Amino acid sequence: MKARIFVTLKPGVLDPQGRAIHHALGGLGFDGVNDVRAGKLIELDVADGTSDADLDAMCRKLLANTVIENYRIEKAAA
Amino acid sequence: MKARIFVTLKPGVLDPQGRAIHHALGGLGFDGVNDVRAGKLIELDVADGTSDADLDAMCRKLLANTVIENYRIEKAAA
């Protein structure tokens, strides 16, 4: 089973990487970009029996820093 | 308009970050993880008139390294 974990910085947390991307897009001539936030996407291929609680525990213990980051879990059949 | 860009390594490209996450999950006692791939999620807040071609150009010119990475664009209304 595939699961995708989206890890994003919480609102209000400073995002230097996003700021740098925003600046670089401006330099390339892409106007009209109001904001950029950089996050992580982690694709897991786990055993079919893996429970939602297990996936949640993986996020809390390792994949996301819950002090400054939010995470969302999306499960796919294939 | 919000747009989310998912940048993932192409299949076959070595992913040391994913390998490290895989190993760490094993160390935490999470068995049954077959594979981990690490990617990037970039959330853009762009002007409403931004065309798909512009978003595509941003990905090709800056956000993704198309030699080793794939990207996918997802547009959201809000």
TrEMBL record, chains A, B:
May I have one GO cellular component term?
A: cytoplasm
* UniProt-recorded Gene Ontology molecular function terms: ATP binding; phosphoribosylformylglycinamidine synthase activity
Which EC class does it fall in?
ligase
Which InterPro entries does the protein's record reference? PurS, PurS-like_sf
Keywords, in A-Z order: ATP-binding, Cytoplasm, Ligase, Nucleotide-binding, Purine biosynthesis
Q: Does the keyword Nucleotide-binding apply?
A: yes
* UniProt catalytic activity: N(2)-formyl-N(1)-(5-phospho-beta-D-ribosyl)glycinamide + L-glutamine + ATP + H2O = 2-formamido-N(1)-(5-O-phospho-beta-D-ribosyl)acetamidine + L-glutamate + ADP + phosphate + H(+)
Entry's localization field: Cytoplasm
User: What pathway is this protein said to act in by its record?
Assistant: Purine metabolism; IMP biosynthesis via de novo pathway; 5-amino-1-(5-phospho-D-ribosyl)imidazole from N(2)-formyl-N(1)-(5-phospho-D-ribosyl)glycinamide: step 1/2
One Pfam family from the UniProt entry?
PurS
- EC number(s) from the headed UniProt entry: 6.3.5.3
Q: Which GO terms describe its biological process?
A: 'de novo' IMP biosynthetic process
Record-linked NCBIfam families: phosphoribosylformylglycinamidine synthase subunit PurS, PRK05974.1
**Functional summary from the UniProt entry:** Part of the phosphoribosylformylglycinamidine synthase complex involved in the purines biosynthetic pathway. Catalyzes the ATP-dependent conversion of formylglycinamide ribonucleotide (FGAR) and glutamine to yield formylglycinamidine ribonucleotide (FGAM) and glutamate. The FGAM synthase complex is composed of three subunits. PurQ produces an ammonia molecule by converting glutamine to glutamate. PurL transfers the ammonia molecule to FGAR to form FGAM in an ATP-dependent manner.
Q: How does it assemble?
A: Part of the FGAM synthase complex composed of 1 PurL, 1 PurQ and 2 PurS subunits.
Which family is annotated? Belongs to the PurS family.
UniProt name for this protein: Phosphoribosylformylglycinamidine synthase subunit PurS
Tell me which species this is from: Sphingomonas gilva
Q: What taxonomic classification does the UniProt entry list for its organism? A: Bacteria, Pseudomonadati, Pseudomonadota, Alphaproteobacteria, Sphingomonadales
